[in-house]
Amino acid sequence: MRNLRVFWPQNSRHNGTLIGWLHDNVVVIATVVESESNIDIHGLLEGHEKWLELKEGCRDTPVNLGRVHRSDEGFLSITFEDKALNGIKTHFVLYARPSLYYMQFYSLSPLQLDITIKADEATSNIASGGRLVQDILLEPGLRQEQCCDLRCITRQMNASAVVEAALNSSKQPPLPTSKPRAPSQAWKGTRQILRLALDSLFGICNLPLFIFDSTTRLKDVSATIQQFDVRLEQFSFFPSQVRLISTRSRKDIATYSAQYINFYNNVWLIFNDVVIGTAVGTALCENHQYLGQLLYTYTELWTVRYVIDALTWLDDWPVGLKLNTELSRALHLSFMAMTNIWGYALNAISGHLPLIIYLMGLSGSTGLTMILSLSSDLLSLLTIHIYLSYLVATTACHRILLTAGSLWNLFRGKRYNVLQNRLDSWDYSLDQLLLGTMLFTLVAFLSPTIVVYYGLFAAARLVTILMHALSETILAVMNHFPLFVLMLRIKDSRRLPGGIHFRPTKRADIQNALLTVKSVPIAFSRIFFQYLLLWGRLSSHYHPVRLIGHVATASFINPIPRYSIRYSMLPVGSTSPKEKLE
Predict the structure, then answer these.
(1) Residue 519 φ/ψ, nearest 5 degrees
(2) pTM passes above 0.90
(3) Average pLDDT of the chain?
(4) What φ, ψ does residue 3 adopt, rounded to 5°?
(5) Are the CB atoms for 284 and 357 separated by under 8 Å?
(6) What's the domain count of the chain?
(7) Which GO terms describe its cellular component (predicted)?
(8) What are phi and psi of 370, to 5 degrees?
(9) Closest Cα to residue 500, out of 529, 527, 522?
């Protein structure tokens, strides 16, 4: 037996003419017009700008479906214009009209907040499952593709408030319209200046540093330059987004909503960053003398005195380990000289540390992230001697391990084939074996001395790396925290649809009420999608097993590249700052 499903707006409780869409076995009611006379639906809607944007998604214009009447007892009865529908058993599916003015809408697939990729057409995300849709919404005995398209029904429900506003003169605030205006000559000149300034600043941030390698840029070695580049990217992104948001296009409400949310999330983050940075910067400026002295005291204690004490301890047969006296003395004097030179340099600049703290406090007016970036760069400068000592110790230890590996192959009768990248069997002469034995003796007796000095600076390097990792994690949190999204999730979750589900319901005035359409908000994993990506990169780079492997093989340990923990905020199609200001 054929059943008719009627999507009925929850707040519609008066008599009048039914306006909506008719499918094979589904009726979507957009509004109830109280007028008794015929309504020029087509004429009223065609003159409504927002309906013209939604028309294509709804497939066709709503029509007069019949009349609704409520009895004295309050029960609802419908008389359809199509006489064939009047004898069919009717089941109601209630829904709340979403307000496109407030960017509320139903969606079968979760809202894609990531504007840096093209969102593919996702499969329907219906919490009730496909079986419920087959049993409740579709005609039994028919395949799903033969019945109405639930996506089309969803778009029609989204457009119902616009239809009601056009036909009933709704009390909702009118949807603002936008008319493109030709840019003035003043704006054209300003745009040229901004474009030139942005190009120059981006060029400085991406200046290649050939002293490292051809791919290293200035922003890769300085956290401050990297943060400055992030702010340049955000500000170059704003003009195009302001123009896009001001149009309030509803043709693709999901894309527009994602752009809107990302824009205001960036604005909120920048404002909060500046507010917090100003407060922290004020505290730094007011206490710069004390903080400068404190910085010198602890820097000199941890990076000079403790290092000198550790080097002295290692040169004196630590815990009974008998090291090579001559090699230990040479390494001790070398590292001690490097540490003492840095100690003299630190003492020379100690009087300027309060000024550095004061300048960092002044930078707080641009945000707390700038203070953190400057602190990260200052940490790199204050531990430069540890970095150089670690570089020397790592190089020596790595060479010792390579030599030991080559001698191991020698004694096994193997030789590394460079051309084939493999180990081949090889017959060594007696002289080669004797020379290998002598070299092995040297390596065996010298390696413990090199390893203990390497272990000291490897531990110091790990501590420095972890401090950089903490700073970079805080920077990533402050640059990408979904503050605006969380506010919407709490305030009005219908602006962040993650699908729909159907709840059983009852209403006294509708005897055959079956289900209520509810919008499912997107999961928190989709809100924090940036952090899931960034956390994956951080955890893989700083994984304990990976770090232990680098220490065991004397491989150089570097902090994670800063571009790896920087999530792009540019939308699809953005290529250069110059194009963003066009």
Answers:
(1) -85, 130
(2) no
(3) 80
(4) -120, 150
(5) yes
(6) 1
(7) endoplasmic reticulum; membrane
(8) -70, -40
(9) 522
